Amino acid sequence: MRVLLTGGAGFIGLHVLRELRSRGHEVRVLDSLRPDVHKSASGQPEPDLLKADVRDASALDHALHGVDAVIHLAAKVGLGVDVNDMPDYALSNDVGTAELLAAMARAKVLRLTLASSMVVYGEGFGCCSQHAQVRPAPRNEKDLAAGRFEPPCPICGDPLEMGLVDETAPYDPRNAYATSKVAQELYASNWARLTGGSVIALRYHNVYGPGMPRDTPYAGVAAIFTSALKRGEAPQVFEDGCQRRDFVHVRDVAAATVLACERHMGGVRAYNVGSGTPRTVGDMAVALSAALDGPKPGVTGGYRLGDVRHITADSMRLRQEFGWSPQVRFEDGMAELARQ
Predict the structure, then answer these.
(1) Number of neighbouring beta carbons within 10 Å of residue 124
(2) pTM attached to this predicted model
(3) Can you tell me whether residue 197 is helix, strand or coil?
(4) Alpha carbon 242 to chain centroid distance?
């Protein structure tokens, strides 16, 4: 199969590229090499790389010639909590995806695998002893500053027991990045209805592993912790360290992405991509400190308004329908990350 891979020079993209080639696919890479993502990039690291922005219609027309399917990873990623970043998220992710979809329609390329994110769910849902399943309200700065980190029931204020979120949960984006990911999914669904194309939206969880960028706002907490430890500093954990996430290794994500590209043949469907084993941010900090024989993590009580407290999803749909399962154990992945 001939595949156009957008964002193929990025962290996840390079692993997807290797997976595609290992499975015998012909790959064309399109990447803008934007400096805020590729700080060390120079020239064209791939002979088949087209250095272009996904908002460039003529470049897309060229890139899509003779292609059977598209894997769309190119995006501005990060926290999305600064209101001044909103225009860049909208231009890079919303407009970029719309331009790609329009170009795919012109080229009559009808298979899209889209990199989405678990952030589309917001806080997911929780169970209240009085009101059953409810969606937590956004956390406010007054509570966070006072150290009240757990989102309460929006009706009675009682504590919630947070649950796994499956793909039927409604959208609840709580920052600019999350909103742009919802927009990408909706544009792709519109495109599929108009063209008869097929879309798989892969809602990645907290991806980590070799090649993860360091010391950037887009790196993720694992890279930030590792960078601190290699400077001999204790990793600094926000809130109380009990925020739950699903940390999934980048090679497992790449395998899921290529499998989805190969298997899906019609319609629009979303899949969560996670390890299936929730961990706390504190767990990650402790594992990295142990792997590097570094100082114990510090818990700061700090916070970022707009961050979600817990988001862990059920990845059973991907396991059952595609036969995928994660292969990298958390402990092994953390040790590998610490060594890079």
Answers:
(1) 23
(2) 0.89
(3) coil
(4) 20
